[in-house]
Predict the structure.
Amino acid sequence: MRQPLDTPAEERDDSPYDSNGVDRSLVRWMLSLTPTERLAAVQGSIDLIMSVRELPPDGSR
Amino acid sequence: MALADILRTLARHDVELIVVGGMAAALQGAPVNTLDIDIVYSRSEANVSRLLAALVELEAVFRTDARRLVPNESHLLSSGHKLLQTKHGLLDVLGTIEETTTYEDLLPDSTVLEVAGLPVRVLSLERLIQVKAKLTRPKDRAMLLVLEATLDEKHRPR
């Protein structure tokens, strides 16, 4: 069934966000990965944070 | 991969454990950021010995202790949370969660995933949601919403 045009964006089935503001497209992307790939994604975030922490205060290398 | 190396070492020592917290959520498809692995482990004497051997190999120390205290059998037999730093990353070793909930209590609500070629037991999304729902910190409330959205998406007809 088509939804009214004035349906709030977060309530539309095609909205990337749910009513709590959670990015459903991100959820779908994570769910499309295997557990091993998900672990790699987490590791990538940690590696990025650690590399930023190693930068000097002015950001130069 | 560092986190995989922690899991690999624990598996090689046959440690009975359940991955909980953000890592359990992420491995099941929840888009959450985490910097560590949280495990709840069996506090049987045999398992504590195996965990201790794994922690020695991982060169684990208490990350909250300036003396770089090394965890021992007495620490691991206790129910408390041991916040450790290892040579491969951060590892939180939990005797219980929710004050008194043990590894054995959580086993029926856990499932085994294959991660980097290893069988890894994780706490189910449904049980993670129950755990988070009892907590009131903003970070726990935020994760709860992501967990609920992930479970909802998993159950959504394709």
In short: The CA atoms of residues 38 and 61 of chain A lie 30 Å apart. The longest helix of chain A spans residues 35-53. Residues 18-53 of chain A form one domain.
